[in-house]
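My main concern about presentation is that the manuscript never shows what a single data entry looks like. In essence, backbone conformation is discretised, so a fold becomes a row of integers matching the chain in length. An entry of this sort, consisting of the sequence and the corresponding backbone structure tokens, reads as follows:
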Amino acid sequence: MAGHHLSILFLCLQTWPEAAGRHTDVLLVNGILGESVIFPSNIEKSLQVISISWNSKTSVAFINPGDSGTVTPTHKNYYGRINLIGQNYDLVLSNLRMEDAGDYKADINTNTDTITKYYHLQVYRKLWENRAWCLPLLC
């Protein structure tokens, strides 16, 4: 029975594309309160990225790709919680809060045009901690 519950939890915590609301290509991103989540940018390697602007209910961050890529949070709610991962400029939002839940948009400016990607972040509370228990006689 416990395995069944873990399977359901794993399924619920996956990230998958979802057609929803006004945008047909919305990526559903699930996160856990207090932990981190990754917004994958899925930028083709052949594209020359000039800048990336992230927005939600407010402005979130501005990314200047450069050699190592720099990210500048543009709203105080995101100071100290925004980072980049990988050469693909995936956005990492740490220390998730319930108010982080909602719609996000990335405007990816390339040398030829602007690609807009849409995300929907759901933040869940952790229901339990996994702990290993060991009886002294068996350890």
In short: The domain at 2-124 is CATH 2.60.40.10 (Immunoglobulin-like). The beta strands are 16-20, 23-32, 37-39, 49-55, 59-64, 70-73, 82-85, 90-93, 102-110, 114-124. DSSP finds one helix and ten strands in the chain.
